[in-house]
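Input/output pair, single chain:
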Amino acid sequence: MKQLAIVFTSFFGVGFFPVAPGTAATFAGIGLIYLIQGNMHLYFAFMFSLLIVSIPVCSYLEAQIGRKDPGFIVIDEVVGIMIGLLGLPLSWPIAIIGFFLFRAFDMFKIYPINRFEALPGGWGIMLDDVMAGLYTNIILHIAIRYAGLI
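Output:
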């Protein structure tokens, strides 16, 4: 069970990338988005399912390993970037800007992202990235609407 949880939360090994596994997982998440783009129902169902399953699985792994938010857990970045690009036209400029915005929010954890990170178990692992994704999504929607970014 533990090995399956590691495979899932590391997004099939991406979390073991030797340099910046969270950044690698964000790239992998964008790749996944490109695979399922065009089918909003599938996109939303996949994203929501990953989120719902990830919370208890991350809690389980954190307890098994005895360490808060182990670095190889990157499923949170995948879900976060999916939220960040949800409902947006997926062009390369949007993907690139979304990538950098999401990574910045995830790394700097401006309020209230930092509060969510403090939650216990899988809640803390997942919800800070959910918030970073929401911030990214809001900014991209505003940029598209008012700055004509496409």
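The chain has a mean pLDDT of 94. The chain is about 75% helix and 0% strand.
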